[in-house]
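Re: weekly structure request thread

Next one in the queue (484 aa):
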Amino acid sequence: MSFDLVLFGGTGDLAWRKLMPALFQAFRHGTLPPDGRIIGIARDDLSDDQYRALIRSRFDAVDLDKRPTPQEFERFAGLLHYLRVDLSQPQDYARLAATLRERQAETVVMYLATAPALFTTVVQQAAAAGLNRPNTRLVLEKPLGHDLASNRAINEAVRQVLSEKQVFRIDHYLGKPAVQNLFALRFGNALFEPVWRREHISNIQITIAEDFGVEKRGAFYDSTGALRDMVQNHALQLLCALAMEPPINAHADAIRDEKLKVLRSLKPWTPETLDQHVVRGQYGPGKVNGESVIGYRDEPGVDPDSRTETFVGLRADIASWRWAGVPFYIRTGKRLAAREAHIVVNFREAPHAIFNAPPGTSNKLVIHLQPRDGLEMHLLAQGQENRRNGSTLAPVQLNLDFDKRFGTERVGAYERLLLDVIAGRLNLFVRSDEQEEAWRWVEPLLEHWRSDQREPRIYAAGTWGPSASSGMIARAGHCWSEEC
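Done, posted below.
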């Protein structure tokens, strides 16, 4: 299959840090269709050879095992081309259209790795140049908009020129192997379905923790914050995967229909829950991995009086028969104690205790997303040390490391998603109505924080966030996994 992948923002951070390494890995693995062309688009005045040299130099920053050898890059570089385009100039889109007509590829992918504020302009100008043909596929990066109104405006602009099946709203968390295993765990095994409900589950926790700060993105992050950056997309998509009903099949719309039902079932915020079920935090100075680091307000590009949240802890409740009364706890933040993403499913205690067991040792399932990829099942069993007292139990773990089981050369998130775009598979992409429902649910939080005069709760870098986050979850008699 022939394809042209047009990478708007082709010299930007996302292009060289994520997209080009992913495309190279697909090339190395032999899964990238051979008759392809990758065209970088930017305002820089570069030749094809200069663009190839730029990309080659950027590969020095990726993980060693993902870097190409000189021979590999020489072959990969044959796919790379460059076109100087000013995104505000209609004549430059006409030149791009002429370039694409030269080859008449079966599929044209337009990947918008640009600022979201440019999405509407690019889409409209591309359509005016005749680039909205039936073989066109458009990839939109998050964050898609700044709030519900801007999200709707972008989706409406796209809807005017392309059909929904041509639009791929990317959330790279959905491409992670661990998230694919989450779907497989639930819908490929009969073991869990009978207990995946309120009668057996006490609470579910989703943690997406980063130990690094805003790095060189201070100005961008200060206008975004953790709620927009992580909760509205990644965290809510994970919640949907955990809470959705089994779809009737594995087709894209069947899966997305069920996720949409979850988003529509999230209980709306009230003044009481906004006060009791949400914690907004911001990191101060501290130590991460033994090194002293500065606080958020001292980061380059950040307003010294900023109230932008770098941590969010919240409780979400789903109004459905399956999940009534089961809290879903979400926390995410920067400069936390570890770089770790995991889900903890805490099961209820046995209804009638006939054995002695340590307190707080009920069964739980831990799903590791990063940097590990695997499952832990926490059970109770009689250990050798307790053989004289047969009624005493001890906690044990069953561990499954997917990297060891399937090998470390597994398909990365962006690699999988880019191949799906080229092939036209929509299963792992977000539909417009899903996105709008997610924005509708988080927007009251944004409005509440705009009017709330209280400062974010400061937490020391290298910790698990504000102590108020532990207090929020403790009010329901629960605790975060590292505290139990």
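The chain has two domains: 3-141, 174-411+431-474. The mean pLDDT is 93.
Next request, please.
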